[in-house]
Amino acid sequence: MANLHIETPFIQSNMMGGKLNGDIWLKLDAVQPCGSFKARGMAAACQQFLDEGATSFVSSSGGNAGLAVAWAGRLLDVPVTVVVPESTKDRPKELIALEGAKVIVHGESWVEAHALATEMGQDGAALLHPFDNPTIWDGHATMIEEIVQTEVKPDVIVLSVGGGGLLCGVAKGLENAGWDDVKILAVETDGAASLHGSRIAGKQITLDKITTIATTLGAKRVAEQAWDLVKSGRVHTHLVSDRAAVDACARFLDGHRILVEPACGAALAAVYEGCEFLQDKQTIGVIVCGGAGITQAQLSLWQEDLNL
Ligand SMILES: *Cc1c(COP(=O)(O)O)cnc(C)c1O
Questions:
Q1: Nearest 5°: CA angle at 71, between 69 and 72?
Q2: CA-CA distance, 3 to 82, in Å (whole number)?
Q3: Which of 195, 213, 216 lies closest to 290, judged by CA?
Q4: Can you give the pLDDT at residue 111?
Q5: How far is the CA of 161 from the centre of ligand 1 (A)?
Q6: What DSSP state is assigned to residue 17?
Q7: Dist. CA 96–CA 80, nearest whole Å
Q8: Rounded to whole angstroms, how far apart are CA atoms 43 and 215?
Q9: Coil, strand or helix: which one is 138?
Q10: Which atom number of ligand 1 is nearest to the Cα of residue 263?
């Protein structure tokens, strides 16, 4: 079956690299139909479950993963239920419902919502994990295949990390392409440093709590595979503040006319700030992962809160 995600543009940016020496190239996955790169991996996982005979999908992500499952389910004509905690804002619920999925609000936090989704999974629905599944990584890896086609070979790929699904997918794509010499800069916000914290601790850690406005990056523990990549020295980690991530969203909106979540702004901030690790790189590829959970009004509120 044909892919559900679209092939996205890979364009050079002449307005982001003021503090860097190299050329900046942007992989614009913000333009995927469901608003983020999750289109790739979640659709791949949904298709696999469908091939294996699934008749319904369930997700416990009120964020871009849940939205991607709702979107993929609509295209595949498979009913989708997304279980979200009471803390989920109206906007994501509306977007998920707009894709024709059923939204169930259950429990105080993601843990309770996920427990119900797991129960539904045991009752026959295919349960879609948001990041920890090799099929998802294969789906995400297609963005690297597309970059390879352009014959622009970056020295480094800059990306955001939540649970590490995007990271694992990009690493897999680079491996498939034989681009083992391409470095990866994995960026998190201060309050969601589950990968960076693991690197510093020298072992895989679980965060007590998430304290960032980039809630999309809020995985308390990354996929084991993501930690393995860091352990092997394949991946460099970097932290930015919420303030820098939000500022990057505003600058990116002005510069490239695309509105992205702070989760994506984190990776962009590393470029705008001129992160040390990028200083000696000639060609810098940036995954503009997107995110549908943002409005212009919300961005303005964050800017005010952070005195930007
Ligand atoms: C899911 C998501 C991330 C983090 O991806 P992981 O695979 O969890 O590391 C970053 N940005 C956006 C917009 C996302 O939707």
A1: 65
A2: 22
A3: 216
A4: 85
A5: 6
A6: -
A7: 10
A8: 22
A9: helix
A10: 11
Q: What is the pLDDT, as a whole number, of residue 1? A: 67
- Ligand 1 atom nearest to 136, measured from its CA: 7
Report the C-alpha gap between 266 and 268 in whole angstroms.
5
So what's the pLDDT on residue 88? 87
- Residue in 32, 26, 35 with CA at minimum distance from that of residue 7: 32
| Centre of ligand 1 from the C-alpha of residue 217, in Å | 6
The Cα diameter of the chain in Å comes to: 55
Q: 305 and 245 in contact (C-beta within 8 Å)? A: no
Check if the beta carbon of residue 189 is closer than 8 Å to that of residue 212.
yes
CA of 160 to the centre of ligand 1 (A): 7
What is the separation, in whole angstroms, between the first and last Cα of the chain? 47
Contacts of 166 (CB under 8 A, 6+ apart): 37, 131, 140, 159, 160, 287, 289
Cα 198 to Cα 47: distance, rounded to the nearest angstrom: 33
Per-residue pLDDT, 285: 98
Please return the burial class of 279, using the count of CB atoms within 10 Å of its CB with bins 0-12, 13-18 and 19+: exposed
Which ligand 1 atom sits closest to the C-alpha of 293?
13
Flag whether the pTM goes above 0.90. Answer: yes
Beta strands in the chain (DSSP E): 10-13, 23-28, 57-59, 80-84, 102-105, 126-127, 156-160, 183-189, 235-240, 283-288
What residue owns the CA closest to ligand 1's atom 3?
162
Q: What is the pLDDT of residue 124?
A: 87
Rounded Cα–Cα distance for residues 194 and 187 (Å) = 11
- Determine the 3-state secondary structure of 40 from DSSP: helix
Task: Decide: 237 and 230 in contact? Cβ < 8 Å.
Answer: yes
